[in-house]
Predict the structure.
Amino acid sequence: MTTLDILKKTRAARSSLAALDETAKNRILLAMAEALMAAEDDILAENDADMTAARGHINDVMLDRLRLDHDRLAGMAEGVRAIAALPDHTGRVLSEVHRPNGLVVRKVQVPLGLVSIIYESRPNVTSDAAALAVKSGNVCVLRSGKEAHRSACAIVKALKSGIAQGGGDPEILNIVDDITHQSATDIMTAKGLVDLLIPRGGAGLIRACVEGASVPCIETGTGICHVYVDKAADLDKALAIVENAKTSRPSVCNAEEVLLVHSAVAAEFLPRLKKRLVDDRAAAGKTPVELRLDTRAAAIIPGTPAGERDFDTEFLNYILAVAVVDSVEQAVAHILTHSTGHSEAIVTEDPAAAEVFVSGTDSAAVYVNASTRFTDGGEFGLGCEMGISTQKLHARGPMGLAELCSYKYIIHGSGQTRGGSAAKLQNPCN
């Protein structure tokens, strides 16, 4: 079946999903979670095949991103259950205005329609996207990358089984068989079929979708995330935050890629940083972080001299670009120049410095004394997310149920008609 055929049959299933109330959608979601775990052996076998095929072609960090095991699959199922527990946004009245002429104007949330996600090597995106789509009343077409395709297909098979067991139409969720560039192009240009395209992956994928799509597209994910250690920082707190932001899972978009350190504390902080991220990790048999240092940082600790593009690169690896700055204002200016608008953090005990940073930094998520790794739908109470939007129109930050809805106006009258000379005089353009 062609990609366009899959899009058409999925779109045709919208009416079956629209007919379901919140109770019915939740029943389907809980069945999807159970079906995931029931298919554990099949899913993990397909994931093992993906892992085998990917070894030697992607680095160890990205392999970890691809890997599934019992705990990760159980976490995916729990994410689906968490979405079932969230309030349904569909049909919510956002505002209601009673006009002098008797008209009642209601602004009501409605599903977008058909949401398509093009993603790379993260199998968990499959269940997150499917669950959010069902709860928000959207049908969904997935297109995975080649590295995760076997895993994604096995997950979709299980989820469709759960949808059927829960009393829904399995055609509300589908995955594209074709993993060539053509299928991505078909989705990007499917005007009239795709209501929203969400790319999730590296900078190349996101750029290709944003530049090549003729359907509405959300720019997501690319995360050149910064942590700034202020002169008023608690340095123990700063070390813990930097370590977590960089090393807890470097392959994800909310991982720290750039560290900025105030010159007043750099001589004390940077040697402690090197010991923590390089020496201690090597001694413990862990991958040490490669520190790519600007000239001022390099005068304090040894490391790799920062190249021209190191402050504009999403490494997705155990690499951290480091620069020394002289003020919070200089840190903000650096971030505005190099950030992708994802997540930034300041570590400081000075409320005034925190306010300068928060008000001056123009990113989707701005932290004071916390790791950038919290930019996540689950951590924000959204269950999970379709992606992290780094743009400003329609959605920004983690995209949950609310961001998968549009709205329409529903107007109730009692026979009102518009016209008359008085109205025309008051509104000559109308």
DSSP finds 16 helices and 16 strands in the chain. Residues 421-426 have pLDDT under 50 and may be disordered.
